[in-house]
């Protein structure tokens, strides 16, 4: 397994997941809700920034690797799914929205794995729709974790709006990737049939 700074940052992102989740299991007399929510939101923002920074460093320093390309999206999906489950438990995100986002992540991950196996991974490469979806949810989640106003900005409402936008973009991007993969799926089915 290669180890360099970009991969170390990805591992740091994975290591932060149980720390963020653990905050919500601390007894109420150990940490107040506002402090807990602030620390969780800040930790999520730091983790999200490492997502951007590790990819930038890997490209800039020419340290890209197949292991890093595998680990990075796994870390992202684990981080987002863990945060959504926390928010679902807190009643800050609707179960239907969480199901859409988590279900899409599983579906597209499986689709990409299958397309790579048959040598057609280029048809489901990351598209700007997926990047917009990721940006919306990476801003929405810390807003929903913080769940209060900050400098007069109601971050709870901003988070609710952005997570709905992220869910819409999630469905849209999933349809885009499935449509791109459909010719390969059809060809494979026709050969067997």
UniProtKB/TrEMBL annotation:
Name of the protein described by the UniProt record:
CDP-diacylglycerol--glycerol-3-phosphate 3-phosphatidyltransferase
Domain of life, per lineage:
Bacteria
Q: Name one GO biological process term.
A: glycerophospholipid biosynthetic process
Q: Which reaction does it catalyse?
A: a CDP-1,2-diacyl-sn-glycerol + sn-glycerol 3-phosphate = a 1,2-diacyl-sn-glycero-3-phospho-(1'-sn-glycero-3'-phosphate) + CMP + H(+)
Q: What is its main location?
A: membrane
UniProt GO cellular component terms: membrane
Task: Reply yes or no: does the keyword Lipid biosynthesis apply.
Answer: yes
Q: Give the family per the record.
A: Belongs to the CDP-alcohol phosphatidyltransferase class-I family.
């Amino acid at each position: 397994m290669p180890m360099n700074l970009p991969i170390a940052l990805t591992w740091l992102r994975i290591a932060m997941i149980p720390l963020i989740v653990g905050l919500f299991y601390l007894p109420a007399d150990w940490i107040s809700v506002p402090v807990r929510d602030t620390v969780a939101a800040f930790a999520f923002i730091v983790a999200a920034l490492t997502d951007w920074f590790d990819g930038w460093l890997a490209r800039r320093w020419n340290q890209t690797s197949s292991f890093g390309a595998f680990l990075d999206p796994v870390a992202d999906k684990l981080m987002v799914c863990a945060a959504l489950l926390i928010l679902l438990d807190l009643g800050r995100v609707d179960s239907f929205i969480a199901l859409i986002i988590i279900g899409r992540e599983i579906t597209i991950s499986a689709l990409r794995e299958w397309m790579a196996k048959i040598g057609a991974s280029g048809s489901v490469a990351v598209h700007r729709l997926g990047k917009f979806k990721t940006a919306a949810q990476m801003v929405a989640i810390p807003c929903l974790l913080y769940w209060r106003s900050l400098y007069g900005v109601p971050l709870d409402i901003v988070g609710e709006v952005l997570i709905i936008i992220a869910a819409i973009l999630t469905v849209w991007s999933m349809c885009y990737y499935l449509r791109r993969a459909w010719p390969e799926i059809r060809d494979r089915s026709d050969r067997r049939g």
